[in-house]
């Protein structure tokens, strides 16, 4: 033991309860901090369902999303993805055949 001589200065009947008391106080302080600074822990402990009234989920009402996207196959086996942005501009992405994870040649169009 590195600190074996500590028990020559501090009696084990004092040191061990003091150490365990410090661990208990620290643990209690951490739990109080978590309960007072978060809302989901107290909801979980009281049995409320996840994602109650104050959910952190993103709502689609206030978000501008792309209006449409189109996928067309290229001659080299890749795909060209065209996305129509909310302001009307078009963005294109070209996926090379080595990047594709699909196993069949069926392509879908999302609107």
General description of the model:
By secondary structure, this protein is α+β, with helices and mostly antiparallel strands. The chain has helices at residues 6-9, 12-37, 40-46, and strands spanning 68-73, 79-84, 90-95. A three-stranded antiparallel β-sheet has the order 1-2-3, with no helix packed on it. It is elongated.
Overall pLDDT level: 77
Ends: how far apart? Answer: 69 Å
| Unreliably modeled segments | none
* Overall shape: elongated
Structure keywords:
elongated; 3 helices; single chain; alpha+beta; 111 residues
Topology:
Blueprint: H1 6-9, H2 12-37, H3 40-46, E1 68-73, E2 79-84, E3 90-95
Antiparallel strand pairs: 1-2, 2-3
In short:
This protein has 111 residues and is of the alpha+beta class. The chain has helices at 6-9, 12-37, 40-46; strands at 68-73, 79-84, 90-95. A hairpin with a 5-residue loop joins strand 2 (79-84) and strand 3 (90-95).
């Amino acid at each position: 033991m590195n600190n074996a001589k500590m028990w020559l200065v501090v009696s084990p009947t004092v040191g061990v309860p003091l150490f365990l008391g410090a661990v208990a106080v620290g643990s209690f302080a951490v739990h109080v901090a978590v309960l007072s600074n978060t809302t989901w822990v107290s909801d979980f402990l009281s049995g409320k369902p996840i994602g109650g009234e104050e959910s952190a989920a993103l709502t689609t009402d206030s978000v501008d999303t792309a209006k449409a996207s189109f996928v067309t196959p290229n001659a080299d086996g890749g795909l060209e993805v065209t996305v129509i942005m909310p302001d009307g501009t078009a963005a294109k992405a070209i996926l090379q055949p080595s990047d594709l994870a699909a196993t069949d040649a069926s392509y879908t169009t999302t609107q």
